[in-house]
């Protein structure tokens, strides 16, 4: 096969990879695929029993490739393949590539089970196909029986046949398998299936599991451990099919809502770290059980697992004390990718299962951000991409194929509804969308759990059923932006008390003014303090973004990705009116949901993605916003809506923005300046100490 | 340094390796040694703090090497080295090679702490120097402090400096270290010592332990798990010094004296395997504690461990059910070397410590035999070496640099004193040496615990104190051989009843005769049945040896090694008179004691020996005596003393052997033949089912 191809040999083209080559008649299609580096699964090693190596012949003229592909050019189904079909069946047009041979020119389709990026947290699924090259492979072999004349051990003969039939050299063996080898071989009547793990090409492949007979199931989990939510995909490593996706709340919430209060808990309680590690691993295990139940998969068939998470969750999950992350210089215990074992982490999956944890980018930009980078691939784009994950700490990644920079910014909890008078988490009854009439200054809104706007007929009934209980994060952004667009407040965020004369919803609150959004059993109002909290949060995020843009010497971005749950609910238009993100075509602002989880899934299904993200993370330049003298200036400019100095021409082309003030108004801003600074400092302190 | 050496540069010769090279003036001697591949230890990495890199300059004219070596040609002691000497002292003539530089031609001696092959079981120590190249190395480094601008994790920066200062690339990290890295780095004020394990050159080196500051102690254990005795050396991996050696009885004896009864125990008892694994690991741990206490070594400083043992002990120690070893085809679960972790096997040593288990040769020729081969090195000799380890199963290895063959032979327990009327284990009061006067047929003997012969003055007192309780293995061989030499029995092993007239010690016992060796509180006699048991045992061993000689096409061996405890007590002359071993110069028959333990020690101190024994074991041809049709013929000839057909010219030159019988005497042998066969079959059955 390594001799130069004979030009009279049939030409075979594999789709969708497009790889092609000439092979002598009679060559099994699987062998041709292997030789060209086309990934076609096979567990049984060409015995026509596992059915994993299915392909489809595309018939017709492929002028571009100068191929006329025909079913006549593939061998007639023979005995072994026929026996498989009689026993298990085969979809129309499918053939087993281990048995079907090349008899003429062919275009061969390798069917890809489409990976659905099923969003766990109320998100529309995105379709995406991930080319598979998993770190775990199943290999069925038939081992020689013991022979007194050649007294190689049972395990040694197993290794020898795995080398002979599958090319695995220098195999290591997971310790727990050694005592079981003899019984497994005899139970399988010398036919066994070994699960081989090899991640780095430079690492030695390892037998991590062994079953008697043909074992045709191998699954993996991809998990994003977020501060509030843990999300998990269960996927077949043999087909790429997602068997189940689910999420659960992180039980560590009981140790503190935000990350820094959890670090404090560890610092204050001698057994705090142990308790929190136990809690998160317990939740992960409960989720493993859930997705396996939903997917009808035996937990023992889960052989590989990939995890992402923010640095503190990453550390706690791995059993590392996160205290150092709570204070400058925010030193990670480990930033590189971590290779571990499910048994080391107490995971309720196969005892030999491996674990891969993506690298962290910096002390506040974790493996979850790395997962999002892997998913959105800024490093493969010519266009400049901004990725933002808004949370208590916002993670910001900016770049393209030339250069990528990253930072975190202490936005504080305002966007999550904390420190807002009527703020609450997203839950039924929470106000979700807000519009304010520019003329009447009257609001209308929707609540979670109802399709209706508050001025629609029938809304009263829904409101009575669900209650109108507060404003969630997305509504906070919308109401503040709409108050600005309606002229209820100035670009500096000052609610205009003079408007109280026009609409009684503008009410005095000491020496400042508030806006009454709803008056039901509960009065829901937006106070001057609420507006300030939103300004501080958005200014911190924007200042971080602006700093990164400055590092790259750019004045605009081409495309924006909102990662994370929060980004999926906010309207890009309002985020931009608020000046949360820089000016950009609105159509180029996209919510990508749990991109971190998608990145984990990619790394699970294809180990090449692990090398890719490790290399990208090494290249990403980390900016520590707290150390940048320019941060403060950007922050102050970003207190204005949308910004004191930065233009928003693309936004202005689509949204009627109020005219900019010509100069700083007196009084309030002058008074606000020191107050702002101290608030910012408090935010930073809260986030980092 | 990689440029061609300048012929005007000083010439440096390292002893004892004899490696030499030219180096520019000012080159530290340690660097020169490294470049030439001379192993000089260093933990601190050239900071003149660990004191491990000591060398000595040899002064004088070395005409053969054309070097005039002088203390003037080494740099004057400088500041760092001076500070070390002031603090820790340095033996006269010693220098630190990391600090002392080359200033002219030198002959440098790298002092080797002589490894004493301290025999555990009452054996005279053999001196031997083992060149060191251990699998574990200590490396002190000073890690960069965390930097917000370059947020590499603490562990990642540790790995980076281990690569920069010590050349370790692609380091893996033992899982248990990850959560401790940050505290260790801070405790050591960023100076830490890492223990790096690398065994195979193709495997990735791994950080297995980490200490704050300079940690200057690393030990290993070499352990031979025998059926009756477990023996252990504790040795410094940094100097090769043996800190302690000790032994303990194998507690598995309570599950059955011989190996096969232990296999039966496992087969009959559901938890038998678990109980026996627990027992042997518990005994190993007790021995670890003992040698560490004796050597004044913290168990946590034991970082590597090498084990040998017969196949059944090997399996039970590793937690493998040995049932398959109890029946044809005697399949080992694993025959290749096993790499494991102390924590996996529950060993009371450093949690990250590694374990290496030598390969097994065959189902009845274990890792202990491999250790003995490594120790005695038949594969490096031109002369033909026979190695024998006598036990219930005798292991036989025969060969030279051309070819090595191995087999086991079911000798049964006779040599251990079992199935012998007055047999007992070696213990005070047991008869140890025996001589019989050819004229009077009167015996004299010694007992364990006394220096005196039974006809010496004062023996009565010793006998009264110790008792005369039975005959141990070595005495059984001597008394049977002496009875033959004195003419009390024929070459066919028949005790001559006619001699009862000459000496009343020959007494009737039914239709056969016995010889009364001692008449005290206990009557100690050698019966015809005892003689038959010895004949059967020695015939089985000799037949195995003869079979291997036949395989190699040789009619004599050049040198013989008795390994194991038994071999150390028997007199080669009597072993040869008995025909236990083939004819050979008596001076060439040597007891080597616990050669298996010595082999383990070699593999512990130098990982090259691991590769050597793995390669040799692959090459060794295994002969299954039970399957060889010629075994039976050799066995029958070997029933005679010393042998029915094989000549013993070298023995005859030194010992007056009785004249050979011209033909088989009638009666007894004819009757004995079927009885012999059935006995042999029973022995084989006992050993293998």
TrEMBL record, chains A, B:
Ranges of compositional bias, category Basic and acidic residues: 678-689
Source organism of this protein record: Nitratireductor arenosus
Cited InterPro entries: 2Fe-2S_ferredoxin-like_sf (IPR036010), 2Fe-2S_ferredoxin-type (IPR001041), Beta-grasp_dom_sf (IPR012675), Corrinoid_activation_enz (IPR052911), Raco-like_middle (IPR041414), Raco-like_middle_sf (IPR042259), RACo_C (IPR027980), RACo_linker (IPR040506)
Organism placement in taxonomy: Bacteria, Pseudomonadati, Pseudomonadota, Alphaproteobacteria, Hyphomicrobiales
CDD domains: fer2
Domain of life, per lineage: Bacteria
Region (Disordered): 654-689
Residues covered by the 2Fe-2S ferredoxin-type domain: 10-114
Pfam families assigned to the protein according to its UniProt record, in alphabetical order: Fer2, RACo_C_ter, RACo_linker, Raco_middle
Protein name: DUF4445 domain-containing protein
GO terms for MF: iron-sulfur cluster binding
């Amino acid at each position: 096969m390594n001799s130069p191809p004979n030009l009279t040999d049939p030409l075979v083209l594999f789709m969708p990879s497009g790889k092609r080559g000439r092979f002598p008649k009679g060559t099994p299609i699987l062998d041709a695929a292997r030789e060209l580096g086309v990934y076609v699964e096979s567990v049984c090693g060409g015995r026509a029993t596992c059915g994993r190596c299915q392909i489809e012949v595309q018939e017709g003229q492929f002028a571009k490739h100068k191929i006329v592909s025909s079913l006549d050019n593939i061998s007639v189904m023979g005995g072994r393949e026929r026996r498989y079909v009689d026993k298990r069946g085969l979809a129309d047009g499918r053939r087993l590539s281990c048995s079907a041979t090349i008899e003429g020119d062919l275009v061969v389709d390798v069917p890809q089970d489409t990976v659905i990026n099923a969003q766990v947290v109320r998100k529309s699924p995105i379709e995406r196909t991930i080319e598979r090259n998993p770190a775990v492979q199943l290999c069925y072999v038939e081992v020689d029986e013991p022979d007194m004349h050649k007294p190689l051990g049972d395990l040694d003969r197993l290794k020898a046949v795995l080398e002979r039939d599958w090319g695995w050299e220098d195999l290591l063996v997971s310790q727990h398998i050694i005592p079981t080898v003899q019984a497994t071989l005899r139970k399988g009547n010398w036919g066994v299936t070994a699960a081989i793990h090899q991640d780095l090409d430079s690492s030695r492949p390892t037998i991590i599991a062994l079953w008697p007979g043909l074992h045709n199931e191998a699954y993996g989990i991809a998990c994003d451990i977020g501060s509030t939510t843990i999300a998990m995909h269960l996927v077949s490593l043999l087909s790429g099919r997602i068997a189940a996706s689910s999420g659960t709340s992180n039980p560590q919430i009981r140790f503190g809502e935000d990350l820094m209060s959890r670090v404090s808990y560890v610092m204050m309680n001698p057994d705090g770290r142990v308790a929190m590690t136990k809690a998160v691993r317990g939740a992960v295990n409960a989720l493993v059980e859930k997705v396996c139940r939903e997917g009808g998969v035996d937990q023992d068939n889960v052989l590989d697992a990939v995890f992402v998470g923010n640095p503190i969750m990453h550390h706690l999950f791995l059993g590392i004390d996160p205290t150092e992350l709570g204070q400058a210089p925010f030193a990670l215990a480990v930033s590189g990718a971590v290779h571990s074992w499910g048994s080391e982490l107490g995971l309720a999956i196969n005892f030999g299962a491996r674990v891969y944890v993506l690298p962290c980018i910096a002390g506040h930009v974790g493996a979850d951000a790395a997962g999002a980078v892997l998913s959105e691939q800024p490093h493969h784009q010519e266009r400049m991409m901004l990725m933002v994950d808004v949370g208590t700490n916002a993670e910001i990644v900016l770049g393209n194929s030339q250069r990528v920079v990253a930072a975190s910014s202490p936005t504080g909890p305002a966007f999550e509804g904390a420190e807002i008078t009527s703020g609450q988490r997203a839950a039924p009854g929470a106000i979700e969308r807000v519009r304010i009439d520019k003329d009447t200054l009257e609001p209308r809104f929707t609540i979670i759990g109802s399709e209706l706007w508050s001025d629609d007929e029938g809304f009263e009934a829904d409101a009575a059923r669900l209650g109108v209980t507060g404003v969630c994060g997305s509504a906070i952004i919308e109401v503040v932006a709409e108050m600005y667009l309606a002229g209820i407040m100035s670009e500096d965020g000052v609610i205009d008390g003079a408007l109280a004369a026009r609409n009684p919803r503008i009410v005095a609150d000491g020496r400042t003014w508030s806006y009454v959004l709803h008056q039901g059993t509960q009065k829901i109002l937006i106070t001057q303090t609420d507006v300030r909290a939103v300004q501080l949060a958005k200014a911190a995020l924007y200042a971080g973004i602006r700093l990164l843009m400055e590092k790259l010497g750019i004045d605009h971005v081409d495309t924006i990705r909102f990662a994370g749950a929060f980004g999926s609910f906010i309207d890009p238009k309002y985020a931009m009116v608020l000046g949360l993100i820089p000016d950009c075509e609105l159509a180029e602002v996209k919510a990508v949901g749990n991109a971190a989880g998608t990145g984990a899934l990619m790394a699970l299904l294809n180990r090449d993605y692990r090398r890719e993200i490790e290399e990208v993370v090494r290249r990403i330049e980390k900016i520590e916003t707290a150390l940048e003298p320019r941060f403060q200036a950007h922050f102050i400019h970003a207190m204005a809506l949308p910004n004191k100095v930065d233009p928003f021409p693309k936004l202005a082309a689509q949204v009627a923005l109020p005219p900019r003030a010509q100069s700083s108004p007196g009084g309030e801003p002058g008074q606000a300046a020191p107050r702002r600074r101290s608030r910012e400092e408090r935010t930073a302190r809260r986030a980092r100490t």
